[in-house]
Amino acid sequence: MALVSAKEMLQKAKAGHYAVGAFNINNLEWTKAILLTAQELNSPVMLGVSEGAGKYMAGYKTIVGMVNGMLEELKITVPVALHLDHGSYEGAKACIEAGFSSIMFDGSSLPFEENVEKTKELVAICNEKGISIEAEVGSIGGEEDGVVGLGECADPEECKTIADLGITMLAAGIGNIHGKYPDNWAGLQFDVLDAIQQKTGDMPLVLHGGTGIPDDMIKKAISLGVSKINVNTECQLVFAEATRKYIEAGKDLAGKGFDPRKLLAPGTEAIKAKVKEKMEVFGSVGKA
């Protein structure tokens, strides 16, 4: 199956009261693990790529080629969207040109009028090419590509203004954080999420910072219109832990245990398990 726009899969998710997982990819093994898990569970999936990961993996066109090759080689039949995560204006244009099927333009750090102007321009381009587009209002806390923020709750009126531009999905800050959540985290602000849902209607909403949010909060967020949930840090953590155990056990010193295919295998299996766990919580299993 070829890459698809996220529009239809997220509209179906919102109508069915479940969420599609957007799992960030960092290399070939991670990508393969996510795709095979989605196929096994018959779940739609989004592959997220940050601008930093795009550079690490030798550019957006290289990533498009890698993912398309995997879809064919692994005989993936579930819907898969390749999505730019927290993209700049320039990064969004580059990913459109490279062949991504979905982009995010994060204008939340810009003056609101500039966010509106740039989002409107990108919406027109994406509509012409059949690409889905995500926008953000209210910055997400934590760290993303070296940018650290405390996070803020989005203004529901600003959310409506951005949603009315014709975007596919909206990420709105509701107290969520990238990376690990601190012990004193106040939790998601469901009153803000409810107000945003009331203003944006049928617009699928996006929850960033899916790592560490308790399952009951995730399910409540889905009930209030969240149809896409981003996960990155949890996959990084389980990959690192499994790889560390492999090396500490000395398995890299036995036979050809140093072979990258063997060295990376435990982490890859850990990612599969984590993606399966998240898809079950999100309710997307069997929804392809």
Features:
two-stranded antiparallel sheet, 12 helices, alpha/beta, 10 strands, 288 residues, single chain, eight-stranded parallel beta sheet, TIM Barrel, globular, 16% strand
Strand residue percentage: 15-25%
| Sequence of strands across the biggest β-sheet | 3-2-1-10-9-8-5-4
Which homologous superfamily in CATH is the superfamily?
Aldolase class I
CATH architecture annotation name: Alpha-Beta Barrel
Number of domains: 1
CATH topology: TIM Barrel
In this structure, how is the largest beta sheet organized? Answer: 8 strands, parallel
- Total beta strand runs: 10
**N-end to C-end Cα span:** 12 Å
C-alpha geometry:
globular
Low-confidence stretches: 143-150
Write the H/E string, N to C.
HEHEHHEHEHEEEHEHEHEHHH
Please report the first level of CATH classification, the CATH class: Alpha Beta
Structural class: alpha/beta
How much helix, percentage-wise, in residues?
40-55%
Radius of gyration: 18 Å
> Kindly state the mean pLDDT as a whole number?
92
What's the number of helices? 12
